[in-house]
Design a protein that fits this description.
Blueprint lengths: L7 E5 L4 H6 L1 H10 L4 E6 L15 E4 L8 H18 L3 E4 L4 H9 L4 E5 L7 E3 L7 H11 L16 H7 L7 E5 L4 E2 L2 E2 L7 H14 L4 E6 L14 E4 L2 H5 L3 E5 L2 H8 L3 E6 L4 H4 L11 E5 L10 H5 L6 E2 L2 E2 L7 H4 L3 H14 L4
Parallel strand pairs: 1-2, 1-4, 2-3, 4-5, 5-6, 7-10, 7-12, 10-11, 12-13, 13-14
Antiparallel strand pairs: 8-9, 15-16
Helix pairs in contact: 2-5, 7-13
Length: 356
């Protein structure tokens, strides 16, 4: 059943970067179906920097949800949020979280139309959570269940033109390959096991520089990284930034937010997967506008171990405090990937996109 009157839509997704990118087709689809509506995104300060790149978002609410605090602190945080949302008079909310808490927030904020997955309390416009679906399409299935037209593209919009950004970062107007060795750490979550070795990235950067001396080969650090790139590397070094990602011609990374940001900017990607299932979240050619996405995944016997079920079940033995651990203690799924394999994938894209 298509809802005819929707004027004030709230998209509720507090974290994290990749998850916000995955929900971008939902935002575009709401705007397509209800072009006169106002769309507000509520997110945590951690991901606030990416919000301006969603072209269909009219307002952003930055809110620190105290989920990890003591009982009374959490209750106070939730009540404050409910009062804030009530004052905004939303008629519709899309819940990007599978958690009854967010269902309660939607309900007691007086929001009539609550989109989400049926397992979440108070969702009245939902569908079943399909653990085997590609994640962006899983979100869109909620809208499709209600008969809405959906836009099946990940999308972020550049705020500044490419030439200006390249000039800011002192990059040439030739080809730029960005390598991001970091990621996997978010508020309350540590998944460093998703990372390919920093040493291998440095070797890769040097090999690429030898093969393509006219290219800009750049190494990008995470803002919160404790591990640092050696100052003596022959390649340029930067701190991660959405504008910088947007001007790369090829972006190489593990399963982490900047990889998905690159994909949404229609940047060609090489993704290095270990404990995650690329079938569920790796960038796909059909969901961007002409970009080429290559993925490396060994699919060893114990992989994937990081799944929709294990990600949400913090009481399982796969989590130690906030750290997701490798139970074989080998990290074979990610360590077995070689520099040569990754370079070959990059060269495949160079040939397909005729970058030389």
């Amino acid at each position: 059943m298509i809802i005819s009157r929707v004027e004030n839509i709230l998209i509720m997704k507090f974290c994290c970067f990749g998850d916000l990118v995955f929900i971008s087709p939902v935002i575009a689809s709401f705007k397509f179906n209800y072009p006169q509506s106002k769309i507000t995104l509520i997110c945590s300060p951690w991901v606030r920097d990416i919000a301006p790149y969603f072209k269909d978002v009219d307002e952003v609410i930055e809110y620190s949800l105290n989920e990890k605090g003591k009982f009374f602190s959490k209750v106070k945080s939730f009540l404050k949020l409910i009062l804030l949302l009530k004052s905004k008079n939303f008629d519709t909310v899309f819940l990007g979280h599978r958690n009854d808490v967010f269902g309660y927030i939607g309900k007691f904020s007086g929001i009539k139309n609550i989109f989400g997955f049926k397992e979440t309390r108070y969702v009245n416009l939902g569908t079943e959570f399909d653990k085997n679906a590609y994640e962006p399409m899983r979100y869109l299935s909620v809208l499709e269940k209600q008969g809405l037209h959906t836009i099946k593209k990940l999308s972020l919009e550049k705020r500044v033109d490419k030439k200006t950004i390249k000039s800011k970062y002192e990059l040439s107007n030739k080809i730029t390959i960005g390598l991001f060795p970091f990621g996997g750490i978010n508020p309350g979550t540590d998944m460093e096991i998703k990372r390919w070795s920093l040493d291998k990235y440095i070797v890769l950067s040097e090999e690429l520089k030898k093969s393509y001396p006219d290219f800009d080969i750049i190494l990008i650090e995470g803002k919160e990284s404790t591990e640092k790139i050696n100052k003596d590397t022959i390649c340029k070094k930067y701190t991660v930034d959405a504008d910088l990602i947007s001007v790369c011609d090829i972006f190489v990374s593990g399963d982490t937010g900047p990889l998905h940001i690159a994909s949404a900017f229609n940047v060609n990607t090489v993704s290095i997967f270990g404990p995650s299932d690329p079938e569920l979240i790796a960038p796909r050619n059909e969901y961007t506008n002409g970009a080429v996405h290559e993925t490396i995944w060994k699919n060893i016997i114990c992989s994937p171990c990081y799944t929709p079920e294990t990600a949400i079940d913090r009481k399982s033995d796969k989590w130690v405090n906030s750290k997701f651990i490798c139970h074989t203690k080998t990290l074979e799924c990610i360590k077995s990937i070689t520099v040569e394999e990754v370079k070959q994938k990059i060269e495949t894209i160079i040939k397909l996109k005729r970058l030389i």
